[in-house]
C-alpha cells in the first residue's frame, strides 16, 4: 500500500478503453481481496467508487461489469465482517460509545442502514432505552436516529417492517411495554437526552405506527411543545413540525379525539423555536417626580 502500487491498479481500472488491461487489473485485485489482510488495504483506496461506476455504466463492456460485481461482493464481505466486529464491541463498556458512534456514521447512508438492520439495530434500540449508562444510552439514541433516517429517506418496505418489529419487541420486553412509553422515558430526562429524543422522533414519526404512538401519549405532546432549555428549542420545534406534517399527511388529521393534540402542535409550530407562549405586554410605569 505504501509503495503506491495499488494506485497504479486503480488507474488501470479507471481506463475502460482497454478492456483486456482493465480486466487483468480487476482479476488481480479480485485475487488480492481473497485475503482479509489485503482487503483492508483495498478498502483504503477509491476502488469501491470505481467499481460502482463500472457496474452502473451501461456503456461499459459486460465482462468488465461482471468482474467488477464479483470484486465488489468480495470487498463487501469484508465490510460485513467489520460490522460484526464493531457489533462485538457493543458489549465492551470501555469502547461501546465509540462503537455506537461508528454504527451511527454507517447508518447515515441508506445502504449502511440496511447493512446494519439485521446484526446491530436491536442492540442499538435496547441500549438507547433500557438500563444503559448515560454515555452509552445517549450514543445509542443518536446512532438509532441516524439509522432510521435523520438525514436521509426512509428504508425499503422489508426493512421498515423489520424496524417496526424490533422497536415493538424491545418495548414489549421492557417495563414500559410500548414505544410511546420508551419515548416518554427519554423525554423526561435531562436536556441532552431530550435533544436526542427530539431528533429521533423527528425521523421516526413519518411512520404511521410511530405517529400513533406519539399522539397516544398526551405527555409526549406536552413536552415537545414546551421546551424551556435554549439549546433544545430548535430541535423541539423541528420535532413539532415533523409530527404536525405527519399528522396532516395521514388519515388521522380529522380524528376528533386528536383535536387537542392537533391544536397544540399547530400553536407550537406557529410560535416558532424561540417565541414565548404569550406575547409580552408593555408595562407603563408613571415616572416619579422629584
UniProtKB/TrEMBL annotation:
InterPro entries, per the entry? ARM-type_fold (IPR016024), PSMD5 (IPR019538)
A cellular component term from Gene Ontology for this protein is:
cytosol
Would you indicate the residue range of the signal peptide?
none
What does the record list as GO biological process? proteasome assembly
Instruction: Write out the transmembrane intervals.
Output: none
SUPFAM superfamilies assigned to the protein according to its UniProt record, in alphabetical order: ARM repeat (SSF48371)
Fetch the PANTHER family from UniProt: 26S PROTEASOME NON-ATPASE REGULATORY SUBUNIT 5, 26S PROTEASOME NON-ATPASE REGULATORY SUBUNIT 5-RELATED
**Entry protein name:** ARM repeat superfamily protein
What taxonomic classification does the UniProt entry list for its organism?
Answer: Eukaryota, Viridiplantae, Streptophyta, Embryophyta, Tracheophyta
